[in-house]
Design brief:
Distance between the termini: 40 Å
Order of helices and strands: EEEEEEEEEEE
Mean pLDDT: 96
Radius of gyration: 13 Å
Oligomer: single chain
Strand content: over 45%
Length: 127
């Protein structure tokens, strides 16, 4: 049974930092592109960042490109999202997803390509 478990969310002031973690189990982790998505209340889920199977390629949404960093540790089945210079508009539930289908980085941002999702972790940024 595949499980993705996010952690590390919380309440932080604008300008602060958080590091999200996602622990994966029940799958061959290195076969999966891993992504982070977020969903704010009343809004659709949106892409944040993704990382290729071996970690050599990363893709970011324009809104986070200079502030967030995605990384992975295949030896421990973990993916991370380091979030710096947080803004109130970053407030959302953050989800990690696993995607074995995509072969091209241009498709990393498509949520429909992801087969597995975690339960999410809340990030709240106060102004």
């Amino acid at each position: 049974q595949v499980q993705l478990v996010e952690s590390g969310g919380g309440l932080v002031q604008a300008g602060g930092s958080l590091r999200l973690s996602c622990a994966a189990s029940g799958l061959t982790f290195s076969n999966y592109v891993m992504g982070w998505f977020r969903q704010a209340p009343g809004q659709e889920r949106e892409f944040v960042a993704a990382i290729s199977r071996r970690g050599g390629r990363t893709v970011y949404a324009d809104s986070v490109k200079t502030r967030f960093t995605i990384s992975r540790a295949n030896a421990s089945n973990m993916v991370y999202l380091q979030m710096n210079s947080l803004k109130p508009e970053d407030t959302a539930v953050y989800y990690c997803g696993a995607n074995s289908r995509t072969r091209y980085s241009g498709d990393y941002a498509s949520g429909n390509e992801y087969e597995y999702w975690g339960q999410g972790t809340q990030v709240t940024v106060s102004s």
